[in-house]
Amino acid sequence: MTLFRARVMDTPADPFTGGELRSDDDCGILVQGGLIAARGPFETVRAANPDEPVLDLRDGIVLPGLVDTHVHFPQVRVIGGLGMPLLDWLDQCALPEEVRMGEVDYARGVARDFVTGLVDSGTTTALVFGSHFASAVDVMFEAADRWGLRVTTGLVTSDRILPEPLLTTPERALKEQAELAARWHGKGRLRYAVTPRFSLSASEAILESCGQTFTEVDGAFFTSHVNENLREVQEVRDLFGGSSYVDTYDKFGLLTERSVLAHDVHPTDAELATLATRHTSVAHCPTSNSALGSGLFPLRRHHEAGVHVAMGSDVGAGTGFSMLKEGLQAYFMQRLLGDEGLPLTSTHLLWLCTSAGAQALGLGDEVGDLSVGKAFDAIWLLPEAGDPLAVGLGNAKSPEDALSKVFALGTSSDIGGVWVGGDQIAAGRWRMPPSH
Ligand code: GUN
Ligand code: ZN
């Protein structure tokens, strides 16, 4: 058991429906077997547990581990390809690199870079877009397992339009998905995600095979892309006989409460209604949407339609792993939308980057905030003296103001510690899989 002593901020209640920031200046969190066994004013928790070792983290701020609901593992080395819209960026940046994942040793190095990127940025839970190669998905699962990260991922499937090495058939996809799911789904903190790349590169036959795997693997997730770019949306409509993009997935039973669609920058009202009815979540990826010029995310329309929204980095179209940066960019985007935007406070941003993500991934009872009964997945922001974040925090006028400064100024180098399930996996520049 360990008793953590810290300034803690989290969002146990949805601020879009009246929830407030919970900020405790001198909080005691007792962690036993990876779970939060008690929480309260430090002196109270201390009095009830006088013999437990205390870890004093009062310099800085402890937040829940960050949740990234859309991030591509094979794209870590192509982050920063600027100046292109989606389909050109795929052709010139992403897909050539994804072809290289066919070589398992190369994929292993990429998986190492990828997991390091997540850990260094304080991301402890992620829905990860995998690779078209089963061997590369295996090394991704292995890497996540070694670090104990909460990762949901799977084989990416496509049977048209992409470079030939990235294509498969429904039969082969069924077999490889079944094998991967049998090996990894439910092992430790890992789960399987059925992952057609996007309807543009998927025939009805491959979507049907995805639907079959989704039904057969109990508790599996589904993820893909939707309504990201206007040219893409039009091409999907043409390929599917005028069907809406959302309906191309819905037709095969792929939209449920265990489904997450990335982007949705250009939805129709009917599509939003379908997503709400199915309880399917949307991963909003603002740095990617800006970098590719995809458009301004209509958060207000999602909110009013009752569609659950969480955040994704969309590495490598997105410009890095930091969910703090994504939160800030989400705020900017809503500002730029003027009257059509949804004004966001720092409390909304924390919610979107933690609890909302946990709920989208069906983990709302396990992680997302630091309440009793949840796993201790946490990050410790510890800016060095003189660092802009340290200066900002030293001059904050309220907890909400301090949290605004975290999103405005916080970077990966301000993260002084990362814990998953009570295990510390990073401290400053030091990082280590927990089993070592
Ligand atoms: N649509 C299909 N594949 C991708 C991808 O890799 N990145 C993004 N942003 N959109 C996609
Ligand atoms: Zn993506």
UniProtKB/TrEMBL annotation:
Its EC number is 3.5.4.3. One of its GO terms (biological process) is guanine catabolic process. Residues 61-423 form the Amidohydrolase-related domain. Transmembrane segments: none annotated. Pfam families: Amidohydro_1 (PF01979), HUTI_composite_bact (PF22039). Coiled coil: none annotated. GO terms for cellular component: cytosol. GO terms for molecular function: guanine deaminase activity; zinc ion binding. It comes from the Bacteria. Its cofactor is Zn(2+). Residues 28-51 form the Aminodeoxyfutalosine deaminase/Imidazolonepropionase-like composite domain. InterPro entries: Amidohydro-rel, Metal-dep_hydrolase_composite, Metal_Hydrolase, Metallo-dep_hydrolases, MQNX/HUTI_composite_N. Keywords: Hydrolase, Metal-binding, Zinc. This is Guanine deaminase. The lineage of its organism: Bacteria, Bacillati, Actinomycetota, Actinomycetes, Micrococcales.
